[in-house]
Amino acid sequence: RGAALRQGLIEVISSQLDQRFVRIPPANLIDLPLVLRFQRAASILSSNDPLDSEVLELPSNRQIGYSICGPSTADEFVFFLHGHPGSRLEGLALSHLAHKFNCKIITLDRPGIGLSTPVPGRQVLDHPAQISTLANRLGIMNYRVLAASGGTPYAFACAKASPKKEIKSIGFLAGIGPSEQAFRGVRWGNYWGASVAYYAPKTSRRLIDRSIVQRAQDDDPQVYRGYISKQNRRAKAEERAVIEAHPEEERDQNIEITRPHFIQGPLAFLKEIALQTLPIDVTRLAIESPSFKIWYGSKMNWAVKKVDILAKKLEKTTVRVFDGEDHLTLLPNQGEEIFRDLLKD
């Protein structure tokens, strides 16, 4: 009853917010046609992107932006599904792991993010076809999938919709779980933010545009870096310590990872939240899919703390908990162990 009352209160408040904020004129690129938003974003990225990227042109006049890193002698291939917010640049930050374990890491911008063309009405189950198309174009016969945080729903989609002969294993790194678990056990602030984004899209579009998007689209990358650096200083002590342990150049690179997520406007960010609330039937995955591997930290507040519930629904699943790790500390501190597990047959 308490959860229902809380949800009802959020819906009422969100509805009132939308009625109020709908009168505020949209700023920047929000209401431009998709093609114009994409062209403007590509122009900004081409002049400021500090890291190498690739583009796959599709017959439908769409394109997929992606990154690839690792040695030319690699004998394993990993499709890394970036978090939320995130981008293809997230995979490049794992280059040291790619070289250590002799694998290639390929990361796609999802539609409407970075260099990937927006796709109106896209669904989670559309993503495996993009991965398969890129794999075929790169001559990759089989591969592993590693999803981080908000990329988890797309890993479930791969388990359900990808050609099974292509996928060797699927890993969930600090994942959010299927939609029926996605927001259980989260901090109130996270729950409130996700709920407002879902129930008050007009309000959220304007708030995100004015707080983040305009800074991401600024020609001077220091504008966005300065804003995110300020937000990072408000993180928990353990998370802040991980961030500050890196040299300033690396911190700037990590901030740039999220910038392409907002470069085309706020719609992709909000679309990702909406898609995370949609159910994916996990009851058939045990029959259809290869082995699942799950990693999370003991200090996480997100729904992965209840990942044992998910593991019981899936066959061939291994779960590993890293003591003392949180959402932001897990991959930096335990990346080698995670990749060692992932690449096991």
Can I get a quick summary?
This protein has 345 residues and is of the alpha/beta class.
Structural notes for this entry:
This protein is α/β, with parallel strands linked by helices. It is 47% helix and 14% strand. The chain contains 15 helices and 8 strands. The chain has helices at 2-21, 34-48, 89-92, 95-100, 127-137, 152-161, 188-199, 201-216, 221-232, 237-244, 248-262, 267-276, 285-288, 307-313, 330-342, and strands spanning 54-57, 63-69, 76-81, 103-108, 143-148, 167-173, 291-297, 317-322. It has an 8-stranded mixed β-sheet, sandwiched between helices. Strand 7, helix 14 (307-313) and strand 8 (317-322) form a beta-alpha-beta unit. The longest helix has 20 residues, at 2-21. Mean pLDDT is 76; it is low at 21-42.
Task: Draw up the topology in text.
Layout: H1 2-21, H2 34-48, E1 54-57, E2 63-69, E3 76-81, H3 89-92, H4 95-100, E4 103-108, H5 127-137, E5 143-148, H6 152-161, E6 167-173, H7 188-199, H8 201-216, H9 221-232, H10 237-244, H11 248-262, H12 267-276, H13 285-288, E7 291-297, H14 307-313, E8 317-322, H15 330-342
Parallel strand pairs: 3-4, 3-5, 5-6, 6-7, 7-8
Antiparallel strand pairs: 1-2, 2-4
Helix pairs in contact: 1-7, 1-8, 7-8, 9-11
